Amino acid sequence: MSPVRDPAPFPILVCGEAARGDDAAGFAVTALLSPATLAAARVERVGQLDVLFLLDLPADVPCVVVDAVNGLTPGEIWVRPLSDLVDRARALDASGRRPEPRSSHELPIDAVLTLAATLRAAPPNGTFVGIGGAAFALGAGMSPAVEAALPAFAAAIDQAVLALHPGRGRTPGSGAAPGRGGDAGAPADEEGLGTGPFFPDRCGPSIG
Fold this sequence. Notes:
Blueprint: E1 10-15, H1 25-29, H2 35-40, E2 41-47, H3 51-55, E3 63-69, E4 77-81, H4 82-95, H5 109-120, E5 126-132, H6 144-148, H7 150-164
Parallel strand pairs: 1-2, 1-3, 3-5
Antiparallel strand pairs: 4-5
Helix pairs in contact: 4-5
């Protein structure tokens, strides 16, 4: 009988811009990820999420997308399946409440995910892990609240990776995917399209 091998590492797509304060949180948190996470997944510092990153993923390979977001208390952690972000973006589009992007290269993350879902005929398999930020100006430093929350941010990414990686950290069928419930940092009116986080200007206009 052939030995059972662990699945190949899948990507953690880290978005952000190092020179824009809290937008560097995704880059900073990678130093705090657990050895189990780094064995199960590979860190890819993509800066701005491009649809090609998602189209290149085989259908059976998941990913974790990491970014800082506006619209949350600084340091608050927000975790959701990527399919939830696609559903929200489509609801905003249907309601006519999404602003037009400034150019084809400045789509917010949820719009990139929706485009990938359309081209792949299904949303990408994976999880978004975000942290609320306050300072996104060029040359700004990381805010104290975000810096203090980096360990919790790392723990949320660890949980998301291990939940997507069979055989590491949990037994099959145990536990739920991260990102639901009060510990996910969800706004009180999650289903209302006027609430929830949105992404920094480097990715395009807000979705809220």
